[in-house]
Amino acid sequence: MALSARLRLFYFLHFANPAADRLVYRTIREHLTRSILEIGIGPGERALRMIEVAALHAPVAEVRYVGVDLFEARTQRDGPGLSLKAAHSLLRATGARVNLVPGDPASALARTANLLKPADLVVISVMPAAAMSAAWFFLPRLLHPRSIVLRPKAIEGAQGAEFEQLSLAEVDALASRAKRRRAA
Questions:
Q1: pLDDT of 165-177, one tens digit each?
Q2: Paired sense of beta strands 143-152 and 163-166, if any
Q3: How far is it, in rounded angstroms, from Cα 120 to Cα 135?
Q4: Which domains occur in the chain, in start order?
Q5: Looking at 31-183, which runs of residues are DSSP E strands?
């Protein structure tokens, strides 16, 4: 690895802002992550960095990134974000295989859960709990036994909220609760 790449990696792992994202980058590095699903892209900076860290241990053409976001449907309350076209051009420039899915998490995952391959890492950005409640039902379809799911500790908190790792059992429990709500 080139010295400049090592320095960038060191920066991402120890000094990147927001500080909560450092756990995401460390997880990618430690688990040799090649496929990433991010729910809530926002301005796209974390997406670029995640792809860059994943490309340090695998050819960038083998890195797969799926981003679910509201894109143009964002409101002031949803915070800053990119248009679908801007996100596509920004992330395609990395050389990774990029798939962007517009819509709220529940509807986007409902449309694509059976089409997408399981992800090594799922990163859920800060968003209202209501936006994710129905989406949990579809998430287990996008996981394999070694998948890691990270979500903010305070779903309705501010940007930069600290991440927590969910076990697959916790994801299944959230999915079963979403199923019960859906059936009611």
A1: 999 999 999 999 8
A2: antiparallel
A3: 18
A4: 16-183 (3.40.50.150)
A5: 35-39, 64-69, 97-102, 119-124, 143-152, 163-166
